[in-house]
UniProtKB/TrEMBL annotation:
The protein's name: Dehydrogenase
Similarity comment: Belongs to the short-chain dehydrogenases/reductases (SDR) family.
Source organism of the structure: Thalassobaculum fulvum
CDD domains per record: BKR_like_SDR_like
């Protein structure tokens, strides 16, 4: 299927690895020109080279902290008129809510809610003027099924979801959609790091623990960044203009509900 995205311009946040990289690669394969960002320049530059080599797409890599006004300004200046915005940020650390200070909450909200809202604010009117825009927020399956030790993430990402649910109904008449992609267990550095901690606490070898966790999923495995990126590319496509304000849960069927 031709997704109708050739020549479009996209910003993909936190795209040096993991799910952000999967989304960037999938969009590049559809002929989208990319501006990607992350904090670590060496990793980001290597990813940009990999995407260029695999797809021939134009890729601009901006190493910055997207949670700061300066970082956002640098990315937006490099991108110019933006057709597609993929908001993404690493989640805050797990823990017990009794140990979190107001500062901890402010950091989580800034990274996982307010930065995405600010990037939408700075790009959505241009999308409306050009009569095409796609915003995809990478959040978490915890938005639908909260995880107790991920309270910082639960709160911040659910706040972003609630905000976007409202404005998505206002922008869609201009062919500008806003949706969420909610990952469950995907084979990423973050998942592997969390499982390593859990395996150490349980006194179980990592490989054994990881296999056990994968088998618990109805799919019998973890997801891949490639299939996550493909879903993102479809939501960004010309065929998805009637989908807005929705949250696509990608968890291999782990959520045991009908809605």
């Amino acid at each position: 299927m031709d997704l109708g995205l050739k020549g479009k311009k996209a910003i993909v946040c936190a795209a040096s690895k993991g799910l952000g990289k999967g989304c960037a690669m999938a969009l590049a394969r559809e002929g989208v020109d990319l501006v990607i960002n992350a904090r670590t320049k060496e990793t980001l530059d290597a990813t940009a080279d990999e995407i260029r080599g695999a797809t021939g797409a134009a890729v601009t890599a901006i190493a910055c902290d997207i949670t700061t006004p300066e970082g956002r300004a640098e990315v937006l200046d490099a991108a110019g008129p933006v057709d597609i915005l993929v908001n993404n940020a690493g989640g805050p650390p797990p823990g017990n809510f009794r140990d979190w200070s107001v500062e901890d909450w402010q950091k989580a909200l800034n990274a996982n809610m307010l930065t995405a809202i600010e990037l939408i604010r700075l790009t959505v009117d241009g999308m409306i003027e050009r009569r095409f825009g796609r915003v995809v927020n990478i959040t978490s399956g915890a938005v639908k099924a909260p995880i107790p030790i991920l309270g910082l993430s639960n709160g911040a990402r659910t706040g972003l979801t609630g905000f976007c649910a409202g404005i998505a109904r206002e922008t869609v008449r201009h062919n500008v959609t806003i949706n969420g992609l909610l990952p469950g267990p995907f084979d990423t550095d973050r998942l592997r790091g969390n499982m390593k901690l859990q395996a150490d606490r349980a006194g179980v070898p990592y490989e054994t623990f990881a296999k056990q966790q994968a088998e618990k999923n109805p799919a019998g495995r973890f997801g891949t960044a490639e299939e996550f990126g493909a879903a993102c590319a479809f939501l960004c496509s010309v065929h998805a203009g009637f989908i807005t304000g929705q949250n696509l849960l990608m968890d291999g069927g782990a959520f045991p509900g009908t809605l």
